[in-house]
Every structure is written in structure tokens, then in C-alpha cells.
Amino acid sequence: MVGSASIATAETAEVTPADHQQVLELWRNGGPDTKDDAAATLTGTDADIREFLNTGKDIAAENDLCINVLRMMSSGGRGMKLAGNDALEDGSVAALEQFVQEGWKSPTRTTCGCVWCRSWPQAGRAYKKRPTPR
């Protein structure tokens, strides 16, 4: 019962200036979905602000991660698209964050073939020397 009481208290708690500031910061620094939702929340009621801070910001942040993965996939090669698709199919926040922060590096290194990418040890195994143009 204690858990449900604390949830009810959090849902009915008075909205403070700090809550407004937190929504404003999310609007300033968030991704596209977070910005849209925060902007709508700022023009809403105290209940809207409380709902956004309790659940809406997390949903919007997850949508922003999906948007980031899709953007990265659209600018990458085949390896990037496959790795991004794996993260999207997994669907967990952890998989999406891992791809956005680190997961894109390996596919880029193994599919690019440029001098910079070939200098990475992980790419060296996958890279086959190309014939020198005459």
C-alpha cells in the first residue's frame, strides 16, 4: 500500500516553479518529440505538467531515440542499416541508446574503407586491400 500511496501523492503534488523549469529545459534541449510535447505541456494545466513529468517525458525521449536511430540509418551504409534495424527490432531503450552512443561505430568501420576507418583495428580484419588504380 505504501507504493500506491506515494504514487498518488506524486500525481496530486502541487506543481512548483522548478517543475516548470524542468519542462522548459526539456523543451530547450530535448529531441524533436520531447520539444513538441514539452511545448504543448507549457501551454497546458498543472495536471498536464505533472503528467508530462511523470510519464510523458520518458515516452518522448524513447521516441527521440528511435528518430535518432532512423536518421543514422539513413546516412549510413548497409552495415549501419542492419545494426540500426537490430536496435529498432529489439525495441528496448537500452538497445536504442547503445546503438546511438556506440553501436554505430563498428558498422561504419567495417563498411567505409577510407584511410581513417582502415586505421581502426576492428576494421582492419574486415577490410580487403583494393587494387591500386593505374
Give the uncertain stretches in residue-range form.
Answer: 1-10, 123-128
Q: From the helix content, strand content and strand pairing, which structural class follows?
A: mainly alpha
What is the helix fraction of residues, given as a range?
A: over 70%
Helical stretch tally: 9
Mean pLDDT value: 79
Pfam families: ALF (PF03752)
Defining key terms:
0% strand, 2 domains, 134 residues, mainly alpha, disordered N terminus
Your description of this structure?
With 134 residues, the protein is mainly α. The protein folds into 2 domains: 14-75, no CATH class; 77-128, no CATH class. Helices cover 79% and strands 0% of the residues. It has helices spanning 2-12, 17-29, 32-42, 46-75, 78-90, 93-103, 105-111, 115-118, 121-126. It is elongated and about 50 Å long. InterPro entries: DUF312_ALF.
Question: What's the quick description here?
Answer:
InterPro entries: DUF312_ALF. The chain has 134 residues and is mainly α.
What's the topology here?
Elements: H1 2-12, H2 17-29, H3 32-42, H4 46-75, H5 78-90, H6 93-103, H7 105-111, H8 115-118, H9 121-126
